[in-house]
């Protein structure tokens, strides 16, 4: 039986940080359920493409429509082996949904693997699960990790930080590193 992954996203989730993990994990044989608060299977979320063009922060362009394949209201964390939290603008507002916070806390309570990329750690800070944890994120979110009791680790955008059941990366250039760390936490052997 394939391991099941819950992918948590929302409107204007970052395109590469949503589609790449969904497709890569599916290709590796994981069953990935993409969910968004207040949406059902068959709905879509608009994505945003973030790029680094030399300004003080990223540039954002409209991306694609990403298909949700599971009803958010039907999520039972007992059915899943891991949680992948996407980045982009979605985390700043879906963390206001009480069930999103419950889902994250349940994964941490059960010691299951959790991955969060870019702005995804905003959800972790809101859930109060970073006490004593090392984590990385998009640099502008770094202070939030410290305020939540974690230790922000500044790494290049193509790297990831693993601490216990948690793996984090700063942005989509780190998709390879975060996915390698995540599937190791899920029990897969990764040959580099």
Descriptive overview:
By secondary structure, the protein is an alpha/beta fold. The protein has one domain (4-185): Class I glutamine amidotransferase (GATase) domain (Rossmann fold). The protein contains 6 helices and 11 strands. The strands form 3 sheets. Strands 3-1-6-7-11-10 form a 6-stranded mixed sheet, with helices on both faces. A hairpin with a 2-residue loop joins β10 (161-163) and β11. The longest helix is centred in the first third of the chain and has 13 residues, at 15-27. The protein starts with a strand and ends in a 7-residue tail after the last helix. The relative contact order is 0.17.
Count the domains: 1
- Would you identify the regions where 5 or more consecutive residues have pLDDT less than 50? none
Tell me the series of helices and strands, N- to C-terminal. Answer: EEHEEEEHHEHEHEEEH
CATH level-3 fold name:
Rossmann fold
SSE class: alpha/beta
CATH architecture label name: 3-Layer(aba) Sandwich
What is the number of strand segments? 11
Which percent range fits the helix content? 25-40%
Supply the CATH superfamily name. Answer: Class I glutamine amidotransferase (GATase) domain
Number of helices: 6
Strand content: 25-35%
Just give the CATH class.
Alpha Beta
Distance between the termini: 26 Å
Average of the residue pLDDT scores:
96
- Biggest sheet strand order reads 3-1-6-7-11-10
What is the global morphology? globular
Sheet with the most strands, sense and barrel status: 6 strands, mixed
Cα-based radius of gyration, to the nearest Å = 15 Å
């Amino acid at each position: 039986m394939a391991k099941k992954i819950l992918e948590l996203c929302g409107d204007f989730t970052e395109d590469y940080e949503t589609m790449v993990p969904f497709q890569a994990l599916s290709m590796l044989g994981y069953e990935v359920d993409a969910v968004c608060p207040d949406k059902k299977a068959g709905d879509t979320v608009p994505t945003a493409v973030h790029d680094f063009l030399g300004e003080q922060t990223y540039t954002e362009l409209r991306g694609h429509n990403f298909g949700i394949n599971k009803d958010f209201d039907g999520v039972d964390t007992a059915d899943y082996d891991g949680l992948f939290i996407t980045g982009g603008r979605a985390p700043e507002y879906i963390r206001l949904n009480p069930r999103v916070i419950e889902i994250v806390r349940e994964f941490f309570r059960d010691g299951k693997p959790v991955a969060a990329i870019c702005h995804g750690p905003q959800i972790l800070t809101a859930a109060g699960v970073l006490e004593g944890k090392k984590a990385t994120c998009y640099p502008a979110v770094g202070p939030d990790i410290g305020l939540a009791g974690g230790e922000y680790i500044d790494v290049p955008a193509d790297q990831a930080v693993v601490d216990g059941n948690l793996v984090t990366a700063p942005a989509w250039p780190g998709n390879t590193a975060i996915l390698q760390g995540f599937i190791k936490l899920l029990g897969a052997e990764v040959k580099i």
